[in-house]
Amino acid sequence: MEHSAHAEHHGSKNEVRNVTIVLTVLTIIELALGFMMMKMVDGSAGKLSTKAFIIILMIAKAYYIVGYFMHLKHELRNMIMTIVVPLLLFVWFIIAFLYDGNSFKHLRNTYDPYKNAQKSVIVEKKEEGGEHKTEEPAEKH
Amino acid sequence: MSTLTTATVPTKWWSGGKSPFNVEYGKLMMWYFLMSDAFTFGAFLIAYGTVRFSTNGWPDPNHVFKSYPFASESTFAPLVFVSIMTFILIISSVTMVLAVKAGQEMNKRKVVVNLILTIIGGLAFLSCQAWEWNHLHHEGAWWGHNPFLNADGTQSTTNFTNFFFTITGFHGFHVFSGVIINIIMLIMTLNGVFEKRGHYLMIEKAGLYWHFVDLVWVFVFTCFYLI
User: Fold this and answer.
1) Does any domain span residue A3?
2) pLDDT value for A124
């Protein structure tokens, strides 16, 4: 907010260039982390914290797009608040729903014997070409 | 427009007689529409997250999205194609910002050039998505069909493909309508509608919509391809 007058009159062109660079760099870091994650073990602390870091980068990218490309940062404070405050509902949405999903998984794993047996069945990897040919005609009927 | 939003003297915005938001009606309404759209996409993505949190196994995205056009069957190139799509959308967002800026300077030629570049970017993204959908469909993936196994080798549910096609489809539809809006803006600019009107505010509203499409892709890209 404090910089709005300054940025509006001088930095406009530079601001677009800088934000483009920031978005590109953040995306490249995200991709690098994505490649790094391939070698990590599923569910390990390292993989989970990498995922958390990618989510932080995602929110940073969203901030730059909304703030600078969509110009919200240079609007009046009243305007910013009417957009941002309702979006805070997402904080509750995300926590409540993901917690609920996780709890459902634990309940089912504990109390549902059918699901419990099913989840450990390892399926043999099918031939990709052969499976495709048998499925196509069935779909068209 | 720009001088109005940056008052140097402290103004009492709520004292009446002026707009407390100091933006034009259409732009404010575009913001509110985008907010409602954000909730729609948010609901989709949170539903996806909830189901993923409540499921024991999930397919590894690196083994699902591993190909690109003209690649051989055995190619293992995860994240390559989707990163191209991501950069296409970022660049088209930049050209849209430049179109908006040119509009504020009343530079018709620059608006036209940047709008055309944005439309090309949008069409390129849509073509990439069309190829990817087609490719996955040929592998047997569709709504209700999931040929991919969980990362741990157990049988996967159709939730994975259902959510993928629904959410990327909804986003692709937004890109498509964004391209249509930009084409309409281009025609209006070429006809000199905004020049006669004395301002290019319409381009700013179309720009807001286009940036929102880019914004949603940031989330879709992270949630489906990276984590």
Assistant:
1) yes
2) 66
